[in-house]
């Protein structure tokens, strides 16, 4: 089994998708509801996620649309991606939060009015997304019971676990539905790695950063004293990481260990 196959297994594991696709039909088939209370997009370095989420909202998949994300470690990469894509020309970037930048993309791509998008602009990391978005919703007097979460595919699973914890979802009866916008996969072309779906996903990570993101998630998700789960730092709810995923991770370390982002 080659490195690309192992990395793709990890990518598929991380890119949680509770629906076959982000459509009303899939929501009805998979969850048994016609419409979610809230579609919540989390900030990241991938501007195209705002287009996908906005299109889904415009189709009527949720009653409300929110984007959460302040200025964090991905903000400079998001700004650079937007700056380098002519489709996003004219969007003001400097000093803007990830949520504000993505709201402009969403409005432009799907014809949404500013009043159609709720914003949370203070959060700086995955757990803070959950904490601050809930704070804003409470300030607005909103208590959504069905929430679709959309995030960078490499962070979708950890995002879901953060919301389970910080929204106390099970005890409070909040149904969280995760839907990574796509499942990135590595292919080998001319002897080098490339990422699919590539340009269809808009500005995307470099191969090196993609591998770093994938491998950095596993020690964070693993529920031990060094991880983010209840037995460790307590940043996320417990996540079961299958043994085959852990074994793929271990086998990749000799070649790619220098790229692993250590848990904070």
UniProtKB/TrEMBL annotation:
Family annotation (InterPro entries): Cell_Envelope_Assoc, DUF218, Rossmann-like_a/b/a_fold
Pfam families: DUF218
Domain DUF218 intervals: 89-163
One cellular component (GO) term of this entry: plasma membrane
Identification of the protein by name: DUF218 domain-containing protein
Organism the protein comes from: Cystobacter ferrugineus
